[in-house]
Amino acid sequence: MPIPNRTPDTTADRTPSPRADVCIVGAGVAGGLVAAQLATAGFDVVVLDAGPRFDRSDDLARMETGLRPVHSLGDVWEMGGARDRYTTAGEVTYPLNDLRVKGVGGTTLAWGGYSPRFHEKDFEMQSRYGLASDWPISYDDLEPYYVRAEEELGVAGNDDNPFVERSAPFQMPAFPPSHTDTLFRDACEELGIAFHSLPKAICSEPYDGRSPCLGYSTCTPVCPSGAKYTGFVHIRKAEKAGARVIDRATVRRLEHGADGKTLEAAVYATPDGSQYRQEARSFVLAAGGVETARLLLLSASDAHPDGLANSSGAVGQNFMDHLYVNSLATLTEPLQQEPIGYVTSQSQEFYDHDDPTPGSVMLTFGNIQPVKPIEVALRGGDAVLREDLDDTIMGNRWGDELLDSLQSRVNSTPGKLAIYGAVEMLPDPDNRITLDRSTTDAFGDPVPNVRLSPDAHARATGEFATEKQREILGALPVPTADISSSNTFGLGAHHMGTARMGDDPEASVVNAELRAHDVDNLFVASSAAFTTGGAANPTLTIAALSLKAADALERELRQG
Known about the structure:
By secondary structure, this protein is an alpha/beta fold. It has helices at residues 29-40, 59-67, 73-76, 125-129, 139-153, 179-191, 232-240, 288-298, 373-378, 399-412, 456-474, 539-559; strands at residues 20-25, 45-48, 87-89, 196-197, 244-246, 250-256, 263-269, 275-285, 323-331, 345-347, 361-368, 416-423, 432-440, 446-451, 480-485, 490-491, 522-524.
């Protein structure tokens, strides 16, 4: 079932609306939340997104495409090509397009649904450790917004994490532990390491019109059932409340008035080659950690020669991601369990720390199956123990013969258990997003250049994480033939820090309300605003900050 070859719609009305109350750039989780709140409050909202409005009836075909090893996530979600060009520098050749999606719904169309909160220490790195900078807000300031974000996204979880203070329960119970979870739990208990559930923005029961998880096991790259939250949920709510969403509208620059302090319009291009100006009273940048910085730099003017809202020089600087280190145990016997497609358990035992280094680590526990790529290719891309089930439809095995075949395979394949470690990276001005003027995109604009080099803090933290992973794997209550660890860092594709929050306009881009210091009617709802990155997946914090920005903007709009 290939994805239908749908010709881009060049006939849709992509002309601008009359001057709106709010223009939002980006239709992902951040843009969707802000749009839904403000449209529901009665304001005129226009959302511009560079990508298409995907036909959700194609999700099963996208899933099948994603399962085949010849295809990448870019093939599933139409990423790549002239629109999405970028370059890299620094120590890491950064795979920017591997895990981002441009389109209505944003990168949450392809995320795994992990929804942990940041910790108190993440907001106080300078005060506690003399590292990085403190946020202009505390965990307590953001905690009510975390509660709201969990309600809006629909997060399943249990209140069993001893390291995070909560004021309200989750909306749904956590997914039950798997067989392999019990193995990891026993190992952690032996070592005195806390073991607890991982909150997921995936429905464990019906919620907000969404189906409970049906077990497709393909959260990344696509959830065909709709159980997983995506930004499309709130875009749909925004449109129902009257917001207008324009897809395939690539914003090329933001234009301000004569005073340089007030934005007037977002200039955007459409598939038919037209260029338009969407005027608004206020603007919200919700385009992610890379494109938000790029758009501010592209919007340089006489009043803002180094880029819009960049008198501090901080736009694009302090780019952060989460580094990942992984360790793997090969067992001497089969697990006799098929993976469910996503992690359900974690440990934040090593997140909070007394000394500056090593920094924060978040461990998650998973199980995989030792399937060779050629086997995957030959059976059509199914990466779990299901290929023999095809015989019930296409093969010539039936009854006892089919059952014996299935049991033989399951009972003879050695199991594998993996621990994944998300590692804290500190903000560094040399890790940054800049404009590469030697390379242009489909519209002739300079592309983003991503410069990233892991620092000594991240490396030391990664080594610490690997030691702890190997200790846990060594304590498993099942025979282990081998324990191995990755020799290189992986990346979380969590783009953070390029338009950071702060009280000092000379060292930051936006204030505690997410308003730009230099531009009165510009807000940034994005991981770009993160001051530090912690070790927790960023989406829930993006959502919480977006709701905070929406509150500030709503108050301002009501005041006229």
